[in-house]
Amino acid sequence: MHFLQLLSLALPLSLAVAVPYGAAPGGCKPSSPACCSNPLIRKEWRTLTTQQKQSYISAVKCLQSKPAKLSNLYSASKSRFDDFQASHVDLTPNIHWNAPFLPWHRYFISLYEQELRTTCGYTGAQPYWKLALDAGSEAAILKSPVLDPVTGFGGNGPYIPDAEAAAFPNLPFVVPGRSGGGCVPNGPFAKRNVSLALGDTLGYDPHCLRRDISPYIVTQAGNASVVNWALAAPNFYEFNIRLQGGLQPDQMTLHASVHIGIGGNSGDIANVNSSPGDPLFFLHHANLDRIWEQWQASAPGRRTDFFGPDKEWAYPFNFFGDIPYSNITADFDVGFGGLSGSKKVRDLLNPLTGPLCYKYA
Ligand SMILES: [Cu+2]
Predict the structure, then answer these.
(1) Which of 106, 229, 235, 290 is surrounded by the most beta carbons within 10 Å?
(2) Going by CATH, does the domain composed of 3-13+19-360 fall within 1.10.1280.10?
(3) How many Å lie between the centroid of ligand 1 and the Cα of residue 228?
(4) Omega into 316 within 30° of 0, i.e. cis?
C-alpha cells in the first residue's frame, strides 16, 4: 500500500412526526424555514427509552437486510446499508481534512436518517453519541450505555496482540492504550459480516465487525474540555481545524475521539474510508454535527461562515507537504455519488432549511 494512502487511513459521530422527513408542507419554497415546521428531534442515545433504542437498532438491521440499489456502481455492496458505506469509501478523498468535511457529513447522516424512515419504517430521528459524557475517565468509556450489549451497540473486541492489530490497514503506528481488536462478541452487531473490505478498495471481503477501544485516546481527544476549546473557535476555518485535529495521537481531537478511540488499530470505524461499516459511525457524526450546529448558533454571522480548502491534505491540513488547492465558499457544490444529487454548501448550513429538517435535543 502506498505510504501516503496508509497514513491517510491514520487520520482519521424521537419523535414520530406526521410530516414525512424533509417534506415541504403546503407548497412553501424549499429554502424557506417554513418548509421545516415539524423537525425531527435528534436525541442523545442514553435519553431514549429502551423501546426507542430497540426500534433504532431494528431499523439499522433492516437496512442491512434490504437489497442494495447501488451495486451497479459498487459491486461489493450487498445491502442498502452497504450503499452508504460504499459511497463514503468512494468519496473519501473529497470529504476529509478539508472544508467540505462538515457539510458533506451533515447531509450524509441526514440521507441515512431519511433512509431508515422511508425504507425501514423507522419513526424516530437519528440519535447521537455525546462522547464527552463517557470521556471523563478511562474507566467510564467501557461502561458507556452506547456500548451496552443489550440496550446499545455492543462493546470492545477481545484483546489481540499489538503486532496482529497493527497489521490491519488502518494506522501506521500502534494506537496507545489499545485494549481489544478482535471481533465484537456481543450486542446486536456481534460477528456481523461487513461486506466491504477494510480500506479504500471497494472490494468484497466479508468480515466480522471489530473494535479496539483505547480509553486513553477517548479521554484525551474527546473530553469536555476539547469540546469547549473547539466551540471557542472564532471562525469556521479555525473551528474546522480544531474539530478534525491532526494525525498523531497527541494531536487527535473530536473527530478521532471515536474513530481511533473506539476503532484503535483493527476496528472498522478506525478506517477513514470504510468506517461507516460500524453503525456507531452515524451516532458519532451526528454528535460532531451537533457540536457544529451549537457553534453556528452561538454568535451572529456564524450560520453563514464557511471557508477553507477544497482539497484533502491542503493547507492548513498539509501534514504531508504543500499541494495545490483553492479556498472555497458556500457556493461550492458537494457530491454524494449515487446516493443523491450534489448540493450547494449554503443549502446545508442550517438543519432547519433546504433539504434538512431536524434539530438537536
Ligand atoms: Cu467520513
Answers:
(1) 106
(2) yes
(3) 22
(4) yes
